[in-house]
Fold:
Amino acid sequence: MLFEKKIEPRCAYCTRCAPLDEDSVMCLKKGVMPAADHCRSFRYDPLKRVPPRPSAPDFSRLRDEDFIL
Structure:
């Protein structure tokens, strides 16, 4: 599942924030804030959030017999 239903609020993906650098954002309400922080006026913007990469499958356990019909 790429997108979770319940996300943790962060300024990094709020509609009212613009990124300054990797660790801080500029908030319209609060000014310069840490990217991991949030305030009461948080509004989720799904286009700013980068979901975690899915784990790579482990094919080392498979044998040649597993691919024969």
User: Anything to note?
Assistant: The radius of gyration is 19 Å. The longest strand covers residues 24-27. The CA atoms of residues 26 and 40 lie 15 Å apart. The beta strands are 17-19, 24-27, 31-34.
